[in-house]
Design brief:
CATH architecture: 3-Layer(aba) Sandwich
Number of strands: 4
Strand order of the largest sheet: 3-2-1-4
Distance between the termini: 36 Å
Largest sheet: 4 strands, parallel
Structural class: alpha/beta
Order of helices and strands: EHEEHE
Number of domains: 1
CATH class: Alpha Beta
Helix content: 10-25%
Strand content: 15-25%
Shape: globular
Radius of gyration: 13 Å
CATH superfamily: NAD(P)-binding Rossmann-like Domain
Number of helices: 2
């Protein structure tokens, strides 16, 4: 089974990509940032408790500005494919 890692998985493109890859039989891992609001509405319908037998969808907290943290996530997951869709979504902030 192929593994994919998606940054920006809670965004529009990331959530559609996650759904597509799951439909193709992938194990999908997503990096999400810690925030005051847990913004997962776009992926709630595909989320399964990672402790459930046969789960293929996993979320990991990470900060894209922290290279060591991202390296550790990649090292532990060992993805076949990486999709980088994460970015600041607010013009004022970015």
């Amino acid at each position: 089974m192929k593994k994919a890692l998606i940054t920006g998985i809670t965004g529009q493109d990331g959530s559609y990509l996650a759904e597509f890859l799951l439909s193709k039989g992938y194990e999908v891992h997503g990096i999400i940032r810690r925030a005051s609001t847990f913004n997962t509405q776009r992926i709630d319908h595909i989320y399964v408790d990672p402790h459930t037998r046969g789960a293929k969808f996993f979320l990991h907290y990470g900060d894209l500005a922290d290279g060591e943290q991202i390296t550790n996530v990649i090292y532990n997951i060992k993805p076949d494919e990486i999709y980088h869709l994460g970015a600041q979504s607010h013009v004022r902030v970015s």
